[in-house]
Design a protein that fits this description.
Blueprint: H1 2-13, H2 18-30, H3 34-42, H4 46-49, H5 51-63, H6 67-75, H7 78-92, H8 106-121
Helix pairs in contact: 1-2, 2-3, 2-5, 3-5, 5-6
Length: 122
């Protein structure tokens, strides 16, 4: 619960930076607040911009037994592909994209999976 408290404070102080919202949603997920976690990501459309957010939103809906919504989130490919295409066009035209992309490393993904598996077995 204290991790959730601090994650909420960091997200507020950082003016809702995507990475901080992701970690807030992660804390909500780990405390079984699946709907709040999914809402934190989806209301800001982070599930359409970042793969890690999409995966977490799908896991939230799956854990909440909303299997069709989880599948729908995993099936939506067009928005992310469109964003990558637009980024490619900007790079080709010599324009610099001011936003920086962030991804979870494979070890972070496996750590998250281990933690969530451990918690769900309790």
């Amino acid at each position: 619960q204290s991790a959730l408290f601090w994650a909420d404070k960091v997200a507020s102080l950082s003016h809702e930076e995507p990475q901080d919202i992701y970690w807030l949603a992660q804390c909500l997920y780990l405390t079984a607040q699946y709907h709040r976690a999914a809402h934190a990501l989806r209301s800001r459309k982070l599930d359409k911009l970042y793969e890690a957010c999409r995966y977490l939103a799908a896991r939230c809906h799956y854990a909440a037994k909303e299997h069709q919504q989880a599948l729908d989130i995993l099936d939506m490919e067009e928005p992310i592909n469109k964003r990558l295409f637009e980024k490619y066009l900007k790079d080709e035209s010599g324009l610099k994209d001011s936003t920086t992309d962030w991804e979870m490393s494979q070890s972070s993904v496996s750590d998250v999976f281990k933690v969530t598996t451990f918690i769900t077995k309790k």
